[in-house]
Amino acid sequence: MSHSNKKATLTTHYDDMESTVDLPVLFPTLGRPVVDVRSLTKQTGLFTYDPGFTATASCESKITFIDGNKGQLLYRGYPIEQLAEKSNFLDVAYLLLFGELPNDEERVSYRNEMADYTLMHTGTKRLFEGFHYDAHPMAMTAGLVGALAAYYPDALDIKNAQERYKTALRLVAKMPVIAAMAYKHSIGEPFVYPNMHLGYTENLLNMMFSRPRQEYDIDPLAAKVLDVLFILHADHEQNASTSTVRLAGSTGTNPFAAIASGVASLWGPAHGGANEAVLKMLDEIGDVSNVNKFIAKAKDKNDAFRLMGFGHRVYRNFDPRATLIRKLCHQVLDKYGNDPRLELAIKLEEIALKDDYFVERKLYPNVDFYSGIIYSALNIPVNMWSSKATLYGPPTKRFIIKTVEHNAEGFCAGNRYR
Ligand code: ACO
Residues with Cβ within 6 A of ligand 1? Predict the structure, then answer.
């Protein structure tokens, strides 16, 4: 953000008092000029009120830029579409951390370093044992991430760049391991260790779905689609969980504690639950012939029903992630068999986008509109991607698991509810 001599003059009338103040105007690299209101209270006695950060930047950041009117999302200047098509999650994580994509040499050394951090301290297995089998994965994740500070106290100083780097790598490396452990714990299967020969998302699939004495093929499309979904969710400016991490971090707490608070924030249904609401809505609609009826309900101000997965506080044209996810959804369902909910979703989108109500209010599908259908097709249990759900969805065996009739050891024999 560059400083300038420019000022914004603001006149306030309050309690028969009039004040005129000159507030500094700052210029970001991209986007609108910003009025620095920090001296407002001192000069006028007034505070500002903006609970949703609608007009407020809480910090200066060079990481992500969003232009909601243009439907533009940039990570470090790169359009999200380009990264989704040409890059991969680990390179994007590097980009977000360092400001530029890695060259070949940097990529090798960063990945080697990260591989070292992938394994979990064996003591963390005992933490999982303390959770009941039906504990929500976000409860386990928030607990485990916070607990990492106790296992890895060697790099907790957020003022030290080397330590910050180490902890950032640890977190990126261990998140899929924690997620897979939470899943395996809930279904009573043994934990699967990370395999250093597999890529990031391949490893996640392998840790979640491979089982003892059973052949498991990682589907390259499933791995690719998950990788793109991770890219699309890697950062989104001042969203609720990032803002939570920043607020906790501003106290000087350790990074694991700050990230655990971010996980807790993501757990809220307003943040991580809309994709499940979309699936529920599509199930409720049930058939293409009912779409018009539900569109009318969404427009009726006396009806609380809203089109789930439609509308966004920031994107007022289209959400570029939704366009990419719709494409992925087609690829996934072309391969694994159709899900009638996709046809319904397409019809709903088609009708809504021609309807004056949605057009005038600039309501378009958001990132959550198609993603639930994909996670469902990939056999990822609903409460691992939606904070609303409390129970794991029923297992399907579409492609993840090669069927096994029974297991000689007598444990986990094809039943995930054990
Ligand atoms: N269906 C029907 N009408 C809608 C919808 C919708 N999904 N979204 C907004 N509207 C209407 C509002 O009723 C309002 O109408 P009015 O001007 O006649 O009063 C107008 O559009 C503007 O709506 P706001 O509520 O002001 O929109 P806002 O930007 O505050 O809300 C929000 C955005 C919360 C995302 C909203 O669009 C919504 O509830 N969408 C459905 C839930 C959803 O998909 N959430 C996930 C968002 S993405 C994410 O969090 C990762």
Answer: 274, 298, 306-313, 361, 363, 366-368
